[in-house]
Amino acid sequence: MTLLRQGEGDPHLPHPPVSAYPSTPTIFAGVRHAHAEARARGSGQARQVGGLGDGGVHLISNAGHVTGA
């Protein structure tokens, strides 16, 4: 299982002045983009016959930092 949440913050931008700290977001600035993934894998063998299976689901919210996408 994987969960990733990412804000729009850009570490290359200059830091805000100290006077703006109270109103500056500290984590997940902007629209939060989120991925959630759950996967399962299995294999088995009976006599001379074997099988392998793999499946999962991948959910994305606010794709590209666009609200509701």
Task: Describe the model.
With 69 residues, the chain is an all-beta fold. The chain contains no helices and three strands. A three-stranded antiparallel sheet has the order 1-2-3, with no helix packed on it. The protein is rod-shaped and about 70 Å long. It starts with a strand and ends in an 8-residue tail after the last strand. The mean pLDDT is 87.
Helix content: under 10%
Structural class label: mainly beta
What's the rounded overall pLDDT mean?
Answer: 87
> pLDDT below 50 for ≥5 consecutive residues: which ranges?
none
Number of strands: 3
Largest beta-sheet details: 3 strands, antiparallel
**Global shape:** rod-shaped
Strand order of the largest sheet: 1-2-3
Which radius of gyration do the C-alpha atoms yield? 21 Å
Helix-strand topology string: EEE
